[in-house]
């Protein structure tokens, strides 16, 4: 398989622990490419957590990561799709289920706190992936 460059953006603080950062990136890659193999950019919105916002309040949920992703067409339209990647536990990033939202939203859509879901200028790094299970090798931008 040919190498593929993916840009990763962090809406949360990138973990200082390199292993945790690489595990998060690898899980985000699996989540995004299961829904769209042509993904070009991934926004990491959360670490593994066990809650979700439903009907205006926080409710307990299975452990998961929240990401957004886009392909080249969505890049041009400044839009994205959110997904949850459910994990074995709060400490084990092994994915057990991927759940895309099924909705494409504009990047400047506001979240419940009034912030853009995908603001411009976030820290990013480009990672070369060789295949579906490859954690990749990257460089920060």
Notes on the protein architecture:
The protein is of the alpha+beta class. Helix content is 17%, strand content 44%. It is built from 2 helices and 8 strands, in the order βαβββαββββ. Strands 1, 2, 3, 4, 5, 6, 7 and 8 form an 8-stranded mixed beta sheet that branches. It is globular, with a radius of gyration of 14 Å. The mean pLDDT is 90.
Structural class: alpha+beta
- Termini Cα gap: 25 Å
Strand content: 35-45%
What is the typical, i.e. mean, pLDDT?
Answer: 90
Tell the overall outline: globular
Main beta sheet, described?
8 strands, mixed
Query: What is the H-and-E element order?
Result: EHEEEHEEEE
Task: Tell me roughly what share of residues is in helical segments.
Answer: 10-25%
| Total DSSP E strands | 8
What is the overall number of helices? 2
Radius of gyration: 14 Å
Give the low-pLDDT segments.
none
Summarize the structure.
This protein is an alpha+beta fold and 141 residues long. Helices cover 17% and strands 44% of the residues.
Features:
141 residues; 8-stranded mixed sheet; alpha+beta
Topology record:
Blueprint: E1 4-10, H1 18-35, E2 41-44, E3 49-54, E4 57-70, H2 72-77, E5 79-87, E6 95-106, E7 124-129, E8 137-140
Parallel strand pairs: 1-2
Antiparallel strand pairs: 1-7, 2-4, 3-4, 4-5, 5-6, 7-8
